[in-house]
Design a protein that fits this description.
2 copies of one chain form a homodimer. With 208 residues, chain A is mainly alpha-helical. Chain A contains 7 helices and 2 strands, in the order αααββαααα. In chain A, strands 1-2 form a two-stranded antiparallel ribbon. Chains A and B meet through helix 1, helix 2, helix 4, helix 5 and helix 6 of A and helix 1, helix 2, helix 4, helix 5 and helix 6 of B. Chain A binds a DNA duplex (28 and 28 nucleotides) through helix 2 and helix 3.
Chain lengths: 208, 208
Amino acid sequence: MATALPDTTYAVLGLCAKKPGSGYDLAALADQSLAYFWPISRTLVYRELERLQSLGWVDGELVHQVRLPDKSVWSPTPEGRRVLVEWLAQPVGSHTGVRNRFLLKFFLGAQMPPAAMRALLDDYRESLCAMRGDLASVIERLQGIPGATMGRLSALHGMRTAEARLAWLDEIEIELRTDDRPEAHPERASTGYITTDGGQDAHRTRRP
Amino acid sequence: MATALPDTTYAVLGLCAKKPGSGYDLAALADQSLAYFWPISRTLVYRELERLQSLGWVDGELVHQVRLPDKSVWSPTPEGRRVLVEWLAQPVGSHTGVRNRFLLKFFLGAQMPPAAMRALLDDYRESLCAMRGDLASVIERLQGIPGATMGRLSALHGMRTAEARLAWLDEIEIELRTDDRPEAHPERASTGYITTDGGQDAHRTRRP
DNA sequence: AAGCCCATGTAATGAGTTACATGATTCG
DNA sequence: CGAATCATGTAACTCATTACATGGGCTT
């Protein structure tokens, strides 16, 4: 078997399976839907369509337009639909390489002056609130619209996540107010790393 | 101002600010801590150290060892500490390009036969349970360890997120059992996209 | 006249991964 | 004797982004 294709390839395939369209169309649609949890740039859409075509998974129908440029409307081939369903059915696994910029800063943030940490947390709270609000209005709008179920439930997933993280902010607020942060002096502190080896600093260089 | 450096550069800088060490050490530490929310491969650590050195943000002290290979122990320069704090203080923004492989499949999953959707959800639940369990034990172990506060709270962030998503699974279970999924027939259905334009399919090609 | 929309790309750059190379030491 | 650990890389590759190019039509 050849090297596994990137998820983005299947994402584009899935998009034109939902609704056939030009590369431009699909990119615009991706930007309004998948972008929340799987951003794809316009250029990449074209590249993936090229690949999908060479794999025989999509087929382009040239559509002439009078006041607009001609375009190719892409839809999946039967084979394309088959591999899409196959890919969808494969388990997702837990380590999906999720990157969280906030946590990165938060974890390293013991170095920060308290005021900066304050600002970081406030900023995070604000963006979570905004996200919750946005998603709430999306959900409300999609209520009862046939065929919008998956979109609405995806938005709900994001909203529940945002809510939980806001609750987390309240939860840690108490703990950080006690200002019990010994790691503010890095040279003397334990690393505080999330390890599974009993709390000792692992991978210490063995001394001769 | 030159192009912004990737967050990973600051991540490595932050690591050796927490605890100076060889590239090997830092990679191992990253693998036990940051890997949960910011994975960095070993090779990349070396490349970033090189860059950090050329920027004058870290300094390497050569340490001779008798039974082990010599190594360079990296620590941040005063300038390095300054830019680290500066970077930490910058707001994180909401759209951090978070990718969620599960949501990608879930959203496109209207195409799937119900059994495959079932499998996808069960799989997701299982990995969330595992994650919650792992993080719970991490948190318990870090209880009361001085200097482990940030690590513990980061783990708590992950646990709360996992809990909320498990609750989301329960929440949607009811809705999906009704089997009201008109988008199972893509050709006839609305796209169900998360848009902000009033629920109509946007970017339709204007007809002449 | 300026500027956006539709439509399709090219080119350059950069981030990140995986596989591989090397070589001493130490553990089972 | 083989495997793992410590230590530092090189090489090749791929995903993804950003900037740029082109050009007709429509809006203000």
